[in-house]
Write a structure and sequence with these properties.
alpha+beta; Chorismate synthase, AroC fold; five-stranded antiparallel sheet; 8 helices; about 25% strand; binds flavin mononucleotide
Length: about 350
């Protein structure tokens, strides 16, 4: 991969790695010298995304222990590129021997094989694997102290798994505390049980389910962002669509806004202790691409995991005949479960990048 695996303007991140290669890593540039880089915090973030932790995620057993190769001395950024990585240990590529010949429906095998003329690493999905999102998490954890300095908090949780939805608006406290509990991160306890059952039912049938992740950012000052391609929502959406398996991103009322009248959709302004606030937050905290000072709220929809044990129709690219495939190997029955910390940390990285670009951090 090349520039396609890079993101950012004032800060930047560059990804490398494959699912079944040596490992996965990220190089972060632009961090102000002296910024604290807390190895425990990076590890705690990675642990929330780690595989093999329950029957709701892939059984691949990885420690995902972060190694910082450069750019940090005595716990602080030196100003040089920060290079962080995890090594792959529990690799079993036996289910991938045929993937250039018999591509998985719903995965990148076929288009990637065309693009890279058959030279791409298909083992475990290669560079298309969700495993590369460990690098997003490390980058976000490295950038988060810039948000802490401004009092900005970022949290994410699941609001939908298959047809099971969480109801009501979750507070930041509820979102942050559900991230600390083991199991599925959903701020509504009633919905959590239904979501877990939904994933177990699909997995028992060799199938998978999709999900919606909500991300909330509190404490952002009004006035951050620029119009058009410098919009805060545009930059977040661009980054979120980089997460493998993402099918949609929406802000505030999102697609429901289409069914509303202006009189219901517009968030009324009011004064609160000398500060301009909105009585509702259909805008999701952004107007004209610029923050309003209200919480920034957006949703990311992820599709059902493509690699499933159900029989699927596909093709044999060598014999040019029809074929069927039941995918073996170890897979997440619901991408959304492990994508929660990915969304949260990628959002943190994007916001830190924007704030740095505006000279605010
Ligand atoms: C955290 C995470 C875990 C994932 N786990 C799997 C998995 O176990 N099996 C699989 O087939 N796809 C998994 N994916 C999704 C694939 O990487 C993705 O569907 C594939 O690259 C095709 O890209 P697209 O769905 O964006 O078109 C995962 C994605 C993420 C973000």
């Amino acid at each position: 991969m090349s520039v396609h695996s890079s993101l950012g303007r004032a800060l930047s991140l560059h990804l490398w790695g494959e699912s079944h290669g040596a490992g996965v890593g990220v190089i972060v540039e632009g961090m102000p010298p002296g910024t604290p880089v807390d190895a425990d915090r990076i590890q705690a973030a990675l642990d929330r995304r780690r595989p093999g932790t329950s029957d709701l995620v892939t059984p691949r057993a990885e420690r995902d222990a972060a190694t910082i190769l450069s750019g940090v001395h005595d716990g602080r950024a030196t100003g040089a590129p920060i290079h962080a990585c995890i090594w792959n240990a529990d690799v079993d590529s036996s289910a991938y021997a045929d993937r250039h010949r018999i591509p998985r429906p719903g995965h990148a095998d076929y288009p990637a094989s065309v693009h890279y003329r058959g030279f791409n690493d298909v083992r475990g999905g290669g560079a298309f694997s969700g495993r590369l999102t460990a690098a997003y998490v490390m980058a976000g954890a490295i950038a988060r102290p810039l948000l802490d300095a401004c009092g900005i908090r970022v949290g994410a949780h699941l609001v939908q798994v298959g047809p099971e939805r969480a109801e009501g608006e979750a507070t930041m406290e509820a979102i942050l505390s559900c991230a600390k509990r083991p199991g599925l991160a959903c701020a509504e306890p009633g919905a959590r049980g239904r979501m877990e059952r939904c994933i177990r039912d699909a997995a028992a049938e060799g199938d998978s389910v999709g999900a919606v992740i909500e991300c909330r950012m509190d404490g952002i000052m009004a006035g951050v962002g620029e119009p058009h391609f410098g919009r805060v929502d545009a930059l977040l959406a661009y980054a979120m669509m980089g997460i493998p398996g993402t099918k949609g991103v929406s802000f505030g009322a999102g697609f429901d806004a289409a069914a509303q009248r202006g009189s219901a959709h517009n968030d009324p302004y009011a004064w609160d202790d000398g500060r301009v606030v909105c009585g509702s937050n259909n805008a999701g905290g952004i107007l004209g691409g610029i923050t309003t000072g209200m919480p920034l709220v957006f949703h990311v929809a992820v599709k059902p995991t493509p690699s499933i044990a159900c029989e699927q129709k596909t093709v044999d690219l060598v014999s040019k005949t029809a074929a069927t495939l039941r995918m073996e190997g170890r897979h997440d029955p619901c991408i959304g479960v492990r994508a929660v910390p990915v969304v949260e940390h990628l959002a943190a990285f994007v916001l830190a990048d924007i704030l740095r670009g505006e000279g605010r951090v």
